[in-house]
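Late entry, evening session. Most of the bench is empty. Finally got around to the prediction I had been postponing all week. Sequence below, unchanged from the version circulated by S.P.
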Amino acid sequence: KEETEIIEGEVVEIEIDKPAATGSAAKTGKVTLKTTEMETIYDLGQKMIESLQKEKVNAGDIIAIDKASGRITKLGRSFARSRDYDAMGPATKFVQCPEGELQKRKEVVHVVTLHEIDVINSRSQGFLALFAGDTGEIRHEVREQIDTKVAEWREEGKADIVPGVLFIDEVHMLDIECFSFLNRALENDLAPIVVIATNRGITKIRGTNYKSPHGIPIDLLDRLLIIQTKPYSEDELRLIIDIRCEEEDVEMTDDAKELLTKIGSETSLRYAMQLITSSYLIARRRKAAEVDIEDVSKSYSLFVDVKRSTQFLIEYQDQFMFNEIKAEVQPMES
């Protein structure tokens, strides 16, 4: 956060004096700004004239000029000039004429990440390093200095920390070293909110021979709030399939959606959603406007789910190479 001086008002008139002879003579001009209480004339230089022309500022526009940088922002058009034209574009925004003084102090909020501050202060090219992508390794000393400075800004009220969110899917794929780093990082005051997801039961922690719930060390699990999940009901499955059909722009009959819902409840939701596209292609082949039951049934017969594929492998395991499931030995009758 920082305070800056701005000039905010309605443009009454713009006068630009062009040099008579073509040459290096610079343009000069004047602009008249007003609020509800006062009106002032400002002299314009070459850069300000170019900025006004770039923003396409005309009489009746409400503008704001940053005195420090000279940046001009077009806020909209005055309500008093709303009847100047019979038709206005949809992007035209009407605002009230500013009140009070023309020059006023305004608080400006800059949104930056801690990583951006680290990069700017760790590289020789500074701010340009963000665009070059050459972030490199950031030294621990630089991070400590930045954290100290940010803490000072927070105490002075110049900055607020908005914690980010780090989502880690399939967290059981991390090894013990990654979990150790997460444990240490979560103790930091500037740590983001960490959301992790896994579908594993009691399994080994990668990099060790120890088993743990979800493949996550117990000391890290103790720091977490564990959210219980439940299987989808048939109504929820139907709603998800409806949304998926709408997203993929697939017209499907209600009976076909009911069949997909049943397939999703008996097999898996992912398998049911994958059948939407294949059923749509089958329907297009027979030049149908909607996907019907016969298209879903045809797709179901062509593409098997995990359970049917596993049953097929067990049934014909002797015909596959490198089979590791031993056939059950039938007891011999005497």
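Two things to note before I forget:
The two ends are 91 Å apart (CA to CA).
The longest strand covers residues 2-17.
Will write this up properly tomorrow.
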